Amino acid sequence: MENAIPSTRILGVYPVVPSADEFREAVAILYGEDLEGPELAEAESRVREHFEGLYLIELHVDSQGIEFDWSKVTQPENDKPPESWQAAYDERNLEGEPDRWAFFFHFLELSEPLQTSHGDLAIPDPAPIPLHLESIRYEIP
Hints:
The protein is of the alpha+beta class. It has two domains: about 1-15 and about 55-135, no CATH class; about 15-55, no CATH class. It is about 20% helix and about 25% strand. The protein contains two helices and six strands. The chain has a four-stranded antiparallel beta sheet, with no helix packed on it. Strands 5-6 form a two-stranded antiparallel sheet. β5 and β6 form a beta hairpin. It is globular.
């Protein structure tokens, strides 16, 4: 009997660009609403950093009955222990598409593969978020 080989691939990598309202909301959630002057400038700078390197990733997972472990979706960071590496965030199955998923990933290193429980995946060039994913909103953790 042959072992089933799961088929997993990245369908797209899309930078998350917040609207002006989403940006202001992120500043308020992370740093408070009553900031002014240098405090506001510092908070805005940190929120810009928060969104830099944030991507929505669309993934095809045909697991062939083999469990896909979302906690294993990561990218190694040489200067940090594995428990500190970035991981998939807010993963969700796309409605009507049982093998298609979307999730957010912070500080994605585009030149390095993404590790998964089904093996390493090459990261394609980023593209604008397609229409079928525009309704997925990033929530500040």
